């Protein structure tokens, strides 16, 4: 029998957050080592539990969740999402503008499959959440990375974006609050990004899954607010992070702007939605409860709250390490520190994190895994409690000391 090989469509697809380094971590665990996994923003292993009302609502509705639902989502969930955006100034949002998915990840893939033709260029931030780059490539498109400027709080470099737009550019991805940098873009920045889309007739794809996880004086601005009725905007969000229900897989995409010009695309998106039958039904019953009920996330993102205190602690400890600098995150759950190349002349950052894993049993993700241009960063999840986080960064500091020596 001839060899069975993977599809050529996967040649340019990477997802290093769960790649070879995680495989090595599993191997070490099989040998009896205890690995502290700081590579994925998975809240449950670190003691963050779903609000009781959400769990109770899912359990209550389980008997009615055994059959397929409407492919775009159950009516109560879509209504709750539409009303959520209406309350934030997007008053034209209707139930028909909402698609429910098995998390934002599924919807990103569906949208790009419905939207992208071979050779279409999609602007994606660098660093990015790598699913965006992988899904663009898998759909036949070409991801074109625009630089976010570390020296200016990881804000997008608007000139760099303009320089990379060609006649083949069809959309721009905005990740705000940003994963992995923790940047939260100002109103002026979001408006400028949408204005670029307007001038070049680009679709805006706004990944806003961390919109409720912001710190201090940071304010989140929906890209759709500035898109108006002349820029098609696809806004992605969901329950996984703010409501600590990553495993429930409950996300949505909201369509706004000149939908009359996008009828053909939306027909294709509906087709793909129909083909997967429906998103998982039990978790959809949690959406109305989550969006309409008490917002427990607010306790976690203020001084004294775990998200707040742990992100501050991680930033401080990282900046205390010689040759390491970390822009303080203003949102999300991660730190993206820089290793000074003059102090740590690392040529292969994947090898660096593998060595760290083997030596200190700490699992992080290398910066080029987020499509950053140089091998001088890594991403750390700031979810463990203060004691564990302090120990983990202490181990990282010890490992870096050996590299300096």
Summarize the structure.
This protein is globular.
Strand order of the largest sheet: 2-9-8-7-6-3-4-5
User: Could you give the distance between the termini?
Assistant: 53 Å
The total of beta strands comes to 15
Provide the structure class. Answer: alpha/beta
Oligomer: single chain
Mean pLDDT rating: 93
From N to C, what is the helix and strand string?
HEHHEHEHEEHEHEHEEHHHHEEEHEEEH
Q: Estimate percent helicity.
A: 25-40%
- Low-confidence region ranges: none
Question: What is the overall number of helices?
Answer: 14
Characterize the largest beta sheet: strand count, sense, and whether it forms a barrel. Answer: 8 strands, mixed
Give the amount of beta strand, in percent: 5-15%
Inertia-based shape: globular
Describe it.
With 405 residues, the chain is an alpha/beta fold. Helices cover 38% and strands 15% of the residues. The chain contains 14 helices and 15 strands. It has helices at 20-30, 52-61, 75-86, 103-115, 130-138, 158-163, 187-199, 223-227, 263-275, 281-292, 297-300, 306-319, 349-360, 386-404, and strands at residues 36-37, 98-101, 121-126, 142-149, 155-156, 169-175, 203-207, 233-238, 251-256, 324-325, 334-335, 338-339, 362-363, 365-366, 378-381. It has an eight-stranded mixed beta sheet with strand order 2-9-8-7-6-3-4-5. Strands 11-15-14 form a three-stranded antiparallel beta sheet. Strands 1-13 form a two-stranded parallel ribbon. 46% of the residues are buried.
């Amino acid at each position: 029998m001839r060899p069975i090989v993977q599809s050529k469509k996967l040649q340019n697809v990477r997802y290093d957050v769960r790649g070879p380094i995680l495989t090595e971590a599993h191997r070490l665990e099989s040998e009896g080592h205890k690995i502290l996994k700081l590579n994925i923003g998975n809240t449950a292993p670190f003691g963050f539990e779903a609000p009781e009302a959400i769990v109770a609502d899912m359990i209550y509705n389980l008997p009615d969740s055994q059959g397929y639902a409407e492919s775009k989502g159950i009516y109560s969930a879509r209504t709750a999402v539409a009303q959520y955006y209406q309350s934030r100034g997007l008053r034209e949002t209707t139930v028909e503008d909402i698609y429910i998915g098995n998390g934002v990840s599924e919807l990103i893939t569906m949208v790009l499959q419905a939207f992208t033709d071979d050779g279409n260029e999609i602007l994606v931030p660098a660093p990015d959440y790598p699913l965006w780059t992988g899904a663009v490539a898998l759909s036949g498109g070409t991801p074109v990375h625009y630089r976010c400027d570390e020296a200016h709080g990881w804000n997008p470099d608007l000139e760099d974006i303009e320089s990379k737009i060609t006649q083949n550019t069809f959309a721009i991805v905005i990740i705000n609050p940003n994963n992995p940098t923790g940047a939260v873009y100002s109103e002026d920045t979001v408006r400028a990004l949408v204005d670029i889309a307007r001038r070049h007739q680009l679709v805006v794809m706004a990944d806003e899954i961390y919109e409720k996880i912001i710190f201090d004086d940071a304010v989140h601005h929906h890209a759709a607010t500035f898109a108006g009725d002349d820029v098609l905007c696809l806004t992605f969000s969901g329950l996984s992070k703010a409501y600590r229900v990553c495993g429930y897989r409950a996300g949505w995409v909201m369509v706004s702007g000149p939908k009359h010009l996008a009828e053909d695309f939306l027909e294709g998106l509906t087709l793909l939605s129909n083909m997967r039958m429906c998103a998982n039904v039990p978790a959809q019953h949690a959406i109305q409860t989550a969006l309409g009920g008490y917002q427990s996330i607010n306790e976690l993102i203020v001084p004294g709250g775990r998200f707040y205190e742990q992100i501050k602690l991680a930033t401080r400890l990282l900046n205390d390490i010689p040759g390491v600098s970390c822009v303080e995150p203003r949102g999300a759950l991660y730190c993206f520190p820089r290793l000074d190349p003059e102090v740590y002349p690392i040529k292969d950052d994947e090898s660096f994190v593998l060595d760290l894993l083997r030596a200190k049993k700490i699992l992080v993700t290398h910066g080029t895994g987020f499509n950053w241009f140089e091998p001088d960063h890594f991403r750390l999840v700031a979810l463990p409690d203060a004691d564990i986080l302090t120990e983990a960064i202490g181990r990282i500091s010890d490992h870096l000391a050996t590299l300096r020596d």
